[in-house]
Amino acid sequence: MPLIVVPTSQLFRMRVAALLFTCVAFSAAAHGAYLPITVMADWCIFCWAFSFACTLLVLLVELFGLQARVPVSWSNFPITVACYAALLCLSASIIFPVIMYLSATILWPVFQFNKSYGRNDDPETITASVITAINLLLYVADLVYSATLVFVSG
């Protein structure tokens, strides 16, 4: 019976954290956040779902050691996934708070206490906004770390 050894590298832990934060942002937005503009909300949901699915694929391929059986260049695929996920999470972290506050990750204090902008303090909205910003940072770190491993040391 084959034994699966879970990698404990920083990159693996960073990808697991990104996967978890993407799932939390998606769940919080899908199950309770008030999203008045459906096209923008659909884009944010797509960003999180696509990032989650691709990151899960990368983690599973690396966990089961299937890099040689994948019909793409594996050294470039995780970097491409991290780059697209970082861009999509950047997009979602800007668009989602714009729907709510204009940009919760940058201008949160300005709009948090101003009643003329129609405050929306429900926990799901706050959670989705904050987790998306953290997720963006994790994917950017994944991109930088992966690119360094491939292009600098290899």
Question: How does this model look, in words?
Answer:
There is one protein chain. The protein has a single domain (10-152), classed as Four Helix Bundle (Hemerythrin (Met), subunit A) (Up-down Bundle), CATH 1.20.120. The two termini are 33 Å apart. The chain is elongated. It contains five helices and no strands. Helix 1 packs antiparallel against helix 2 (38-63) and helix 1 runs antiparallel to helix 5. The chain is mainly α and 154 residues long. Helix content is 71%, strand content 0%. It has helices at 10-30, 38-63, 77-100, 104-112, 123-152. Keywords: Membrane, Repeat, Transmembrane, Transmembrane helix.
Give me a quick take on this structure.
The chain crosses the membrane at residues 40-61, 81-108, 128-152. With 154 residues, the chain is an all-alpha fold. 71% of the residues lie in helices and 0% in strands.
